[in-house]
Every structure is written in C-alpha cells, then in structure tokens.
# Entry
Amino acid sequence: MTATYTFDVFSSLDGFGTTSGNWGGYWGKQGPELLAHRLAVYSEEQRMVFGAGTYRVFARMLAASTEESEVRDAWVTRMRNLPATVVSRTLDGPLDWPDATVASGDAVEVVARLKKESEVPLRSHGSLSLNRALMAAGLVDFVQVTLFPVITGQTGTEPIFQGAADFDLELLESRTLDGRSQELIYRPTLHV
Ligand SMILES: NC(=O)c1ccc[n+]([C@@H]2O[C@H](COP(=O)([O-])OP(=O)(O)OC[C@H]3O[C@@H](n4cnc5c(N)ncnc54)[C@H](OP(=O)(O)O)[C@@H]3O)[C@@H](O)[C@H]2O)c1
# Structure
C-alpha cells in the first residue's frame, strides 16, 4: 500500500494562486460552508508536505497575525497542528511549527519515500513549485482545486500551473460552497 498524495490549492478563475491586490487569502469570498468543509477535510488523520517557500509565508503571516486574522481560521490551526514534512535544503530546524521536520533533498525523492513509508495520506497546501515538480514526476494522486469567483488579470501573481507539464484530468468530485466557490478534485495523468 502506498499513501495517496493530494495537492490542495486555492485558485482564481484565471489560475493565479496569489494576488498583489487587497483581496485577502480567499479573495474575500469565503463563507461558512467553505470554512466548515475545510475543517472537515483537515480533521482527517494525514501528514502535510510543504515547500520551504510556503512554510516561510505561513510562518511570517502567523507571526504577524491577530486573533481575527484569516491565517488563524480553525482549519488553518488544524493544518498547522498536523504532522508535517517541510522539504528544504536551506531551512534548518527547529521550525516554528508544532510537529514539523525538515527533509533535506529534492521533493521528488522525499515524497517518493514518504509515499512508501507513511501510514496516513499525504496532503500539501500551496507549495506551488514543489507540487509542479511532484506532478511532473507522477507522484500527485489528486489535485484538489478550490476555485474562487474572481478574475485577477491586474493583480494575479504566481500562476499555479505555469511551467508545469501537460496533464489529462479525470474529474472525481465537485461541490459548490456558499453558492459561489467550487471545489474540484481531479486525478491527473501526464499527457503524452
Ligand atoms: N494558492 C494557494 O493555495 C497557496 C497556498 C499557500 C501558499 N501559496 C503561495 O505559494 C507560494 C509558495 O510557493 P513557491 O512555489 O514559491 O514555493 P514552495 O513550493 O512552497 O517551496 C519551494 C522550495 O521547496 C524546496 N524544494 C525541494 N524540492 C523541490 C522541487 N523539486 N521543486 C521545487 N521546490 C523544491 C526548495 O527549498 P530550498 O530552496 O530551501 O531547498 C524550494 O525553494 C507563496 O507565494 C505562497 O503565498 C499559495
């Protein structure tokens, strides 16, 4: 049995993972259904895998956050408390994260090993360049995209799949949250 690996990512309709504008982490479109669904997904037993870039962004946002900040939403707190592997050659521990270890090396080797050894499913949030590399290596079983109802042609940054390989996608699940956001779960296969 190998552990499954899910790439979980938030996206604008035009495929950006972040924005330089004043939109907020969910582009201002979160609602109770989305937040409850996120908490349910993260309540499952699993191991997180982060790239060093995403770890640094979260650590910085948490350090600067107040009680009301989005980065302290219940599902994020739950995500932060899950066991985590941060893949990095430049970070050295201890990390400012409850249960994280640094795996030094390339993500493809680290995740191939984790998939063999982990007794729980693996999940990654964000970690865009790391997940593009893992998808190209055929290690990503599920791409779970939450599509927020915005177009950010002026302020979009970090095109999620720019520079990725080509993939055919099999749609496995879809749901509408709060009547406006879409969660789509796909199985990717390299397009040859
Ligand atoms: N849209 C979303 O859902 C979402 C969620 C969270 C974050 N984000 C955003 O995503 C961005 C972070 O993504 P990122 O792409 O900059 O960084 P990342 O993928 O989080 O981290 C990249 C780092 O991971 C390590 N790594 C190890 N093997 C790798 C491989 N084969 N390929 C790539 N990286 C590998 C390297 O660390 P070393 O250099 O230390 O070795 C590399 O610099 C931030 O802007 C953040 O705000 C988006």
Observations:
- The two ends are 27 Å apart (CA to CA).
- The first strand starts at residue 5 and ends at 12.
- The pocket of NAP is lined by residues 9-10, 17-18, 51-54, 57, 87-91, 106-108, 125-130, 133, 158 (CB under 6 Å).
